[in-house]
Known about the structure:
Blueprint: E1 19-24, E2 30-36, E3 39-46, H1 59-81, E4 90-96, H2 100-117, E5 121-125, H3 126-132, E6 145-150, E7 155-162, E8 165-171, H4 177-187, H5 194-202, H6 227-243, H7 247-278, E9 282-286, H8 293-306, E10 310-312, H9 316-319, H10 324-336
Parallel strand pairs: 1-4, 4-5, 6-9, 9-10
Antiparallel strand pairs: 1-2, 2-3, 6-7, 7-8
The protein binds 5'-O-[(R)-(carboxyoxy)(hydroxy)phosphoryl]adenosine (KG4) and zinc ion.
5'-O-[(R)-(carboxyoxy)(hydroxy)phosphoryl]adenosine binds near residues 151, 288, 291 and 320.
Amino acid sequence: MRTLKSDARPTTENPDGPVILALESSCDDTGAAVIRAGRLLVNRTAGQEIHARYGGVVPELASRAHEQHLVPLVLATLAEAKVAPHDLDAVAVTRGPGLLGSLLVGTSFAKAFAAGLGIPLIGVNHMRAHVLAHFIEEPRPPFPFLCLTVSGGHTQLLVVRSPTNFEVMGQTMDDAVGEAFDKAAKLLGLPYPGGPALDKLAQTAQPGPFATAFRVNDQPGFEFSFSGIKTQILYFLRDQNRLNPAFVDENRPALCAAIQDALVGALIRKLRRAVRETGIRHVAIAGGVAANSGLRAALHATAAQDEWAHVYIPAFEYCTDNAAMVAMTAHFQYEAGDFADGFLTPDPRLSIAD
Ligand code: KG4
Ligand code: ZN
């Protein structure tokens, strides 16, 4: 029987390797996963439909939904993994970045659960977890590799030197690229979340006459800026609508294709330069926008043209927010002896370097 300790340290009870329960609640997806000796056993995600009717994530509603989903999700995940609470060696939880109320639900539960079982707690950085999602399945990138994390909240270009060494080459100075996809989709009258809807329509058309209508202006170095294209789209549509009120309805797929090309083009230009300047030819993408068909196609085409060694794109369920990536990161931290104490607190602005 283990004793009740808030700063418990590992007891290596599982000879095969640690069994870790991981939780994710940084935004609007509640996730629970179990990993044994670095091999994922179960990954479950409970999404939150409620935000669709507001056209964006409502933080207050997100934390309430996490609070409702978390306990049933944890119990179902443990049952599916055939792991009893007393089989666990550690509990891991996302501690930031993210929405404070959402993070608090996960961290409060994790602290209480770990303390109750007398096992250690691992605090996980959500941005590191997106990157380390690449280690859940083969092929796993060799270190160092370049990773472009593209999500609704982040656009970050990194050199990943080890599971604990992340060097930021550049990031967005304003909107994230996922946010740009979502805002463009909204202007085109597509339902939330707009990124996947815009992608779907873009696949049915060519940009045609709109091929040069939108452009993301390149920032110096490896920084990104995606706020300008939103204004370009807004003014372009306003001017066209004055001439023809049915303009968007008549041209939606081609507009989607043109906007997608502009956003993807900006990402690819920076990636190509990063490969040239660093000489690192193993290139990974992570985050929800990694699901984008245009980005995937452009990556493969660029890899062939520029003779990159390999392109790594995680399975879709490990691109969007999920607990499997938290579990994978926690495994590395467990091996490195990186444990939190009972005072772990969420940090909504946690940087990948922290
Ligand atoms: O990683 P994620 O699930 O959550 C954050 O941490 O932000 O990313 C969600 C973002 C949203 O902006 C969504 O519209 C975008 O990823 N997204 C896409 C696609 N699938 C998801 N954007 C463009 N094309 C897609 N196929
Ligand atoms: Zn995320």
